[in-house]
Amino acid sequence: MEVNPEPFRGPVSFGLEVNVGRGIVAETWLNDILLARKEAPQIAGQSLAIHHDVIQGENIAQLRIAMPGMALEQAPAPWTGPMDDGAHAQLWLQGDVVSITGDEMTVTTHRYAREVWPAEEGETPPVLMPMRIDLPFVPHCAVPGPLWASAQRLDPAVVADAVLAQTVAAGEMIRSARWDAMANATAARRAHAARCYPIGPSAQERREHEIEVLAELHAQPGFRVSIASHAEARLRVQANGRLFDWVREDGRPMILLEADGMEPSPVQLQFGVVSGQLEVLR
After folding, report:
1. Displacement of CA 43 from its chain's centroid (Å)
2. HSE of 79 in the Cβ direction (CA atoms, 13 Å)?
3. In what order do the strands lie in the sheet with 265-267?
4. What are the helix (H) ranges across the chain?
5. Radius of gyration for the alpha carbons in the chain, expressed in angstroms and rounded
6. Residue by residue, what is the 3-state secondary structure of 100-138?
7. Residue-wise pLDDT tens digits, 67-92
8. Phi, psi (5° rounding) for residue 56?
9. What is the largest distance, in Å, between two alpha-carbon atoms of the chain?
10. What are the pLDDT digits (tens) for 107-143?
């Protein structure tokens, strides 16, 4: 890992800069939570806000990469087959400082550490696939801490039915345009986002925006709410047993919002149990 020898030590909002070339499948994770995925033909350059998922102790940012057709979860083995010339991966940990003067907003980005694959020139380790590139870090400044950090670690079987029921109920709220009920069900994560990004919209502004977006979609010709059946979905467990959501076999959320001539819009609802209550945390 390459580390900035003279890092900025003031308060920042943490993020990840991810660059992945052609020819490999890649997923970006933080603290056992999937953030983004890239398929093999694509070239990905992403800036991911992660401040809301950073804990005060050690965090693990991770790139999981594989050749097309491989399962990212399978055991790594030496790869001797062909590889696209554009195959590469880079993961940066960075922090943003946002300042506002009058009507102008300035964002200054500070970089802290980097991991790259393949290794730098002169290093020739064997190529293993699939592989994981870890970038561990401890924040140098105070962070709000994610909601899921205070959730209970649970056996998935204990919460599977309840998470399924609340997910289906959320889909029905959208289908029947019960915006206040849907907004109330997701209030905790909006309040957390407002705490983590105080220069951005307030919790109330976020609520109003979410309702506006849902209402606009609902008004589109051919609007429909697609809720996968139990047989078409699986329970996904993340954050080391603290976050749970039902997803389709291809990994997309169980609820998709569709309309004529539009790409499906996913509705992600990740649940956890805090103080004995199951609620949307992410």
Report:
1. 19
2. 19
3. 224-227, 255-258, 265-267
4. 156-175, 179-185, 187-196, 203-218
5. 20
6. EECCEEEEEEEEEEEEEECCCCCCCCCCEECEEEEEEEC
7. 998 888 889 999 888 888 888 899 99
8. -70, -25
9. 61
10. 999 999 999 988 665 555 568 899 999 999 999 999 9
